[in-house]
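Notes, p. 3: input format for complexes.
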Amino acid sequence: MKSTAHIFKYKTKIALKNVNLQNALARSKSHFIDKRRAAVNALPEFNRLRQRACEIKEHTLAHLDFYLEYFETQVHNSGGYVHWADTPQAACEQIVSICQATKAQRVTKGKSMISEEIALNTALELNGIEVTETDLGEYIIQLAKEPPSHIIAPAVHKTREEIANLFYEHHQKYGFTKRLSQIPELVSEARKVLRKKFISADVGITGANFLIAETGSAVIVTNEGNGDLTNTLPRVHIVVASIEKVLPSLEDVATFLRLLARSATGQELTSYTSFSTGPRRPEDLDGPEEFHVVLVDNGRSEMLGNEFHEMLRCIRCGACLNHCPIYSAVGGHAYGWVYPGPMGSVLTPLMLGLDKASSLPHASTLCGRCEEVCPMQIPLPKLLRQLRVKHYQSQGKASFVGLGLKFWAVFAKRPRIYHFMTAIIIRLFARLGNLGIGRNLPRPQGETFMAAWKKRQAKS
Ligand code: SF4
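Output follows (460 residues plus iron/sulfur cluster):
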């Protein structure tokens, strides 16, 4: 995991100059926003569902130990295994050892942000296991050797030409030697390559949008059907999920499914909603012979009950990214790790350490749109402000910002001197105009707001 503190500003500058990225971001922004708005407007009870979902989540988090143990018992009862992992390293070791125990050489994967978080592909490849991402967007960025730039649309930053070039470069070894240009052709070629991977995989790894305690099931929502081929065809199915994904019952999951697709892609439901419960039973026609669930903590139990607790309600819908003016301007890679946008600006410092991601809580205008659209009513601006406070406090008394604020406080506590000084500064700026210090500021009108307001009061 790399430090993001020093690279955010550098990467934003590059992102702002990247014409392809800017075009892709502009396209995706209106697409996601318009579709979500239409879907939410068509569901009068949307806010009531949000409220209910928050209540369910808070109840589950308050009794997380109970529901996780309940889930574990039900997985055992259905013939599966549960593995607990405190750290990303422990999770990777568990998954690699399951693969090695089954002598797996090839693994297919469904899209999973937790597998990005624990850097699972690297761990598998270091152990000589071939990994193929099967979600089309994930497959594209795997070929490009890039991290996802969006939590639900990982290749949203890629143009059609860039994807065509990637396929031309990487598919020749499979006998596809023609350079393609049309989207249906590209999709068809990827499908042919992936079909062989599905059939030859020894292990299929998926994430989980939700875990259901009462049934021991893992739920994934997809639009491509790749998740079903990943969890059904190989001999072994491994689910990797973080601990806060558990929900008490099937009925509770129904509430979340109605919120998730509408908030993420503006659909009423995604094309596929798949429930995996244990390995194949004797009467089943298909399904894996082994079913494993790896439950990852990675700092989440420390967040339980602390000032960032509300972040554990996140269902990774991506709505906060789509509505964030910063994300819309710079895209996901500028954030430096797997979670971008407002949710990433909270999660990354909590998971990697504030010292490694201190820029991110400042990567926000605090306009509040993220909180407004979040289906789980997570107060993202408040959490970002709390991280800013922590960052400020961690800098100690001698920091540049701290000294600047102290200097400002001397005047702010003395209103007469403050008004006198601001009037002088504003007049100075009005005379000088643009100082040529990086951006063009509008020329001030020559008097302070207070002075203008007093004049207006005197006239009326
Ligand atoms: S913080 Fe809210 S809006 Fe953002 S991904 Fe999580 S649930 Fe969705």
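The chain has a mean pLDDT of 93.
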